[in-house]
Amino acid sequence: MEQLCLKSFVDQGQEITLFSYDDIPNVPQGVIRRDGREVLDTDNFLKYEKKDSFALFADLFRLHMLARNPGMIWVDTDVYCLRPMTYDTPDVLGFELPGGQRVNNAVLGLAPDSPLLAAMLDYTADPFAIPPFVRPKLRDEFATAKAASQPVHVSQQPWGVWGPMMVTHFVHHLKLAAKVLPQEAFYPIAFPDRQRFFKPVAEVEAMLSPQTTALHLWASNKRELGLRYMGLPPKGSYLDMLVTKHGISPSAAPIKRRGNRVFEAGLIDHVGLEDVRLFTDIGGTAQSFAIAAHGKWDCDIQLVDIDHRGRFAPHPSKWVAVYTKALIGHGIDPKRISRAGSQNALRPAQLVANLNGFGDINKIKHLETVLPRLLDHGSQLVIDIRKGSGAFPFLKEFGTTNTVSTTEVDGVPVVRTILTADKIVARDDESSWSAIATTLAGKDGFFRESREHSFLFTPRSDTLVVTFDNVELAMEKRDDRRPWGYSFIEKQGWSMLGVMANGWTWYRDPWVAAQFDDLRDSGFFARFRRVVFYGASMGGYAAAAFVAACPGADAVIISPQSTLDRSVVPWETRYKTAWDHDFSGPYGDAATASHAAGTVTLLYDPYEELDAGHAARFTGPNVLKLRAPLLGHRLGSSLQQMGILAPVTLGALNGTLTEADFYRLLRQRKTFSRYQKELFDRALGMGRPALARKVGRWVLTRGDNRHIRREMLALDQAAAAPKAVPA
Fold first, then answer.
1. What are the residue boundaries of the Alpha 1,4-glycosyltransferase domain, all occurrences included (predicted)?
2. What CA–CA distance (Å, rounded) separates 246 from 254?
3. Listed range (417-431, 439-453, 573-587) with the worst mean pLDDT
């Protein structure tokens, strides 16, 4: 806020001088710097003790500055220059509230011979003076204390006693109210309405007038910014407009504290690291800390998506999208943000945050499998530890701790601590995906990886199958820890190029596109007699999109998306975490990119409305659509449970699968419990109980289906119930 206000004067061409007693970082260029001792040569910096505020010294300093610097106007560093501040009179001060009573001193200009200035200098010469403008009861208390030879020092008196309270008193006492500018001059947004600066621009501008030359932004707003807005102006707000207008980067200097209250962004001042390449947040409770870290070190940000028991979420938790949106909203490139949804996806970080999480609200033991993969030698972990949680003994094996602050929550001390990992934490590197993939590639293949994706090539024959999968699924859900279809492709003796995503990325990282461009341009695909791109759902999208890198290759896609571009498929309500990805470029729209393929074999359930919508966008003459009614989006799983995935896939990949072959194999669905259930429920949903009974009898005479058996019983009971007879 101070940077913004100072720079506003510079940008208006208004000469602005900053007095200080110590060096101050990040002062905007063009601000004149002067030593405060030129005005008051003292080390006695008075403050309002009850609020721990040096505003008391600032109230005194401005009076002496005006006396020693004719023509100078004092402005607080939370005053924004809206227009050049030129006036016909040396007396510059304004009413703070409607009614023409209270005068504020955030903007104050007085001639050295001003009777108002003389009166205030005289009054402040006695730090034990009893203010005539406080409540009578308080005056009596001060008088009693003075009579007992225990006068009350100004530092123990109410806030503002040498500020607005004193200025207001002497303005009216000396009958100078006519010299005071109206409220709209400096305080059109009064203190009770101060949070309007967090509102849209139009709402604030409607309250300004041509008489408004400066705006008091109210330093107390820093507390709200720190507590509610991560120390940064809300996007789209008036304050956000101001920082943008003046080229201020809030994330480079977020609001870190207000008085004794240290906000999360202020934690970076306690971190003893010179370089941070990766910041990690466990559980998503340190947004402002992450933004501040990125602003200071330009680091990547890793979000560890685990629940209160330390278990990884199978799909991105809701907080991940909210967190990511907040980071992007503050100018962080989405490519710099990653989600770790599995053990294998965790990357060691220089700085890790675990605020209000494990060791405080949740049990610290649930971090025992996570921390060894996140901490490296010299890493620092900022963590909240509740007394009695056992966190300190737990952390001893990782390093040493240092207390930052202590608070009480529900009467129990909670210590904010920084752990410095002073020894290398052992990792089972042999079990990582990188190690496994390198072994699978062997000396004749290759393994390439980036932060979010990897390419594994295993050579075997002149047929190449390009598959798309998720590292998390491979490492956490499959016993062999192999990419999707690996064993099946290996049995056929085919070569394989496995493209792996570290999360639900939809492969929209430019690095992935660059790899396919390189493989195409280097003649990699030309080495093979037959090339087939193969994938399901997100992988199906990628197979249909990146087949364009190898024109003429076939694609086999199961329940794919065509794109998640909201302007193209506004009806797609799933996969919100990827809605903000860029789906432009030659590999962006799979329905268009797949025109370059030989044959596109598309398997989908026409009754899955969203899948059918995507399938309808594949309109090329090279598309063979194979419908699998009532088998759902997870069609591959259904086909596998029916025992026909292998022959369907084999025929599709080797180019021999016909429609007749597929629908002959699909007859197996008649004995598949999911299909039976969906067919039965669909008949009921259409209001055709007789048809549902027919389906139910057919199923139950050939086996059992618990769902249908229970529903048939309910139908029988409903039919046997006595019917009401009209009177």
1. 178-223
2. 16
3. 417-431
